[in-house]
Amino acid sequence: MVLASSDTRRFRGLSSVRLTRGVSKRSPDNMATLTIELPPHEAQTVFNLSRWAELLADRELARFEGRIETDRHGQIIMSLPPAPSHGSFQSEIAYLLRTYMPSGRTLTECPISTADGVKAADVAWASPDLPRAPEICVEVISLSNTEAEMREKMALYFDAGAREVWFCSTSGAMRFFGPGTARALNESALCPRFPLQLHLP
């Protein structure tokens, strides 16, 4: 989901981005902030869903083999297909989530409506009642991803309603995050049996 236009708050888990109405300025701790003017929740969600339906119906885009996301203006963001290990980790995470949390749905390349358009989580887990956003959103990090990029995506997932965001490194090391803190958890609160290190065959 998205932030209301009257909201003035920091993305949870990201101390350097502020969503508000106004001008860019420095925060009290002298850290640079980014000011973004946002439409109301309902308007952004309706727009995201409408734009996503357009993209799904586009036969030319259907031929693209990489990932497609959008920004909050509906502009297309394309990514090339990742390395083979990326898909292997994605499959392993999905398998383990299905194994340890069979009561919900495990999804790959899951589109999520956020304050900054539609983003695709590599893997997601959602309870049967289909909340605003999947409770668990997982990103398998590629060499091209920056820490700032992933922190921003994590903040968007939390703002949309996720309860945990997980990162899988290129070596298979897992990091689990909850809302309101930039520090990784010792383990997932929602799936404590999930391993801290993944090993591919």
Proper CATH architecture of the domain at 82-177: Alpha-Beta Complex
Compute the number of helices: 4
Please give the largest β-sheet. Answer: 5 strands, mixed
CATH topology type of the domain at 82-177:
tt1808, chain A
CATH C-level class of the domain at 82-177 is: Alpha Beta
Distance between the termini: 37 Å
In the sheet with the most strands, the strands line up as 6-7-8-9-10
Q: Beta-strand level of the residues, as a percent range?
A: 15-25%
- Derived from helix and strand composition plus strand pairing, the structural class reads alpha+beta
Our Rg estimate from Cα atoms comes to 17 Å
Estimate the global geometry from the Cα principal axes.
Answer: globular
CATH H level of the domain at 82-177: which superfamily? Answer: tt1808, chain A
- Give start-end ranges of low-pLDDT stretches: 1-27
Give me the strand/helix succession: EEEHHEEHEEEHEE
Give the strand tally: 10
Helix content: 25-40%
